Amino acid sequence: MNERATATNVRWILIGWIFLLSAVGYLDRVNIGIAGGAIMNEFHLDKVQFGWIQTFFVGAYALFQAPAGRLADRFGPRKILALAVIWWGLFTSLITVIPALASAFVLIIAIRFGLGIGEAVMYPAANKIVAAWIPSRERGLANGIIFAGVGFGAGVTPPLITHIMSIWGWRASFWCSSLIGLLAGTIWYLVGRDTPREHPWVNPTESQLIETGLPPAETVPKARLSWSEILSNKDVVVVTLSYFTYGYAAFIFFGWFFIYLNQVRGVDFKKSAVLSVLPFIAMAVGSSFGGWLSDVLSKAYGKRTGRCYLAAVSIGLSAILIALGTRIADTNIAVIYLAGGAGALYLSQSSFWSVSADIGKHSAGSVSGVMNMGAQTGSAITATLTPWIGTHFGWNSSFLVAAALCACGAFLWLFVNPIESQSEAQRERLRTASR
pTM for the full model? Predict the structure, then answer.
């Protein structure tokens, strides 16, 4: 019997559960966009104020990416991620107890800022799991599955939240989101472990399969990078800039797409809930397929092709489809183009996280935290800038700005080379540790 036939598959059980945690994270994030109309009416907020609420959430999410990654590196992703998911549940429910007072706007901002701090842990901690559990040849697929949770969670949210709202009101939809998060975080703590050697379900065959598949540097214990090494790494800087453009474009779909359909294109509430699911379905499919394709291309042609060139082509295609979607008057056809742009964008998702795991190794949480700070900075800017551009120049201009940034993000990937991404200081540290 061969090695693969006798190995357990605990690593894929953990990746599957992180997929669910990713979905829960986006349920807690996107629910306010679906309930936005009801919340704005109850608390007498306009679109610009609502944009500031989105901005403070994403701002906190961006600012705490790197610290969250360092926490995952220091204390382990199992504990940190479990605490984070429970945190999401608590802060998601807090908005439901705010009275309709003049100070409600400030209170909502504070609560969403707190939620952003907790959600910042999700993907740096997940990337720490990938770096410890997933052989290099499987990382594209693993990251593709994890980020398919983004599309799945964001896609399930509109029909789920609108259904609950239509029966029990918007507050009940937030209570439901909160309970799901508390349950998911508890189960993760029971099932997850930081490394394969710590997990009782992993047999020696799977443990050996994982260890032999990790990049050589990862076999050296405690080879963590300093902040100066991370921030001076050319590839980290370029990937972070590209992820900024990615985050800017992606957040239009998460933060504004439902409202765009309902209030700008004039689609009724229920149909908006249906149409707004399409970009997220495309994201889920694109993320999984892109991860698989990245591994196939990396195996056949090397990581430069499988990670970098695939990302460049995918993000470039997204720019074209988003731009075309703005030129179409028929809403149904426009949504298909825009959803295609979202799906093409997510074809590149695993490239970002696979490359950051390869660069970071034992500091994968910190490196991916810095990278994701770039994406969330872009998201924070679009949360406020998108409605401003839409008000002054039209909503087509909002999407065209996102398309132009995608074109820039695609171009940046041509300068990334994950094979040569280690700094000389890290190489010296690894040589010293191996003596």
Answer: 0.76
